[in-house]
Amino acid sequence: MVAESQRLVDIGANLTHRQIVDDLDELLGRADAAGVDRVVATGTTLASSRESATLAASRAGVYATAGIHPHHASECDGDTREHLTLLLNKPGVVAVGECGLDYDRNFSAPEVQRKWYAAQLRLAADLQLPVFLHERAAHLDFAAILREHRSSLTDGVVHCFTGTAAELDVYLELDMHIGVTGWICDERRGLHLRELVPRIPASRLMIETDAPFLLPRTIRPRPKSRRNEPAFLSHVLDAVANAASRPRDQVAAETTATAERFFGLN
User: What is the dihedral of CA 159, 163, 166, 167, to 10 degrees?
Assistant: First the structure.
């Protein structure tokens, strides 16, 4: 039995990913047993957004976002906004995204990414929904576009934050929430996050797995599949609580309350 103070919200998991769909019911059962009783399924394309919305409508404790990841911006057309609007008006669909900029791979041309990032920010403003944001190797453009639209947005979270102190300061100045994943558990590349977590106000901090990606390297023994899942969110919680020098139960309660407010969860 998990204490009520330790109930967690995974604010970002790719529940429609091919590595997850075949045993989704069992995966969600393990999550609940581990204290993760609500999961926000991330939409990254129209197809995955539709599938995530269907999950939110059919499974207790599952919510969804609807949006176009920058990798897929080139797939957008004149009907994309209408399709997203229909999804975003469905029960349980709680944010616009995953949207933003990713110049690391440029699967879509940067100018196309910028166009559809801005378009989704406008849609979020029109619908008065928060935005679930992605940024990689594109901070200056990402922040400039966000700043242009910030006054009309209700709220936003920079999901899977892995940036620098200066970048964190910009996002906090823009009154953004910050999502921390298992990246913080990676001794090879996540050590700087442990130094930055104390700078994030409790009211702005949320935790996520980004399952099936970013398996926390602190898990022992490591799953043979190397697949991450919401049940492992407690490892992110442990690392964040240690970095913040706050009790684990306190950080659990804080991040859950923040997620509930941000997404309007039941």
Answer: -40
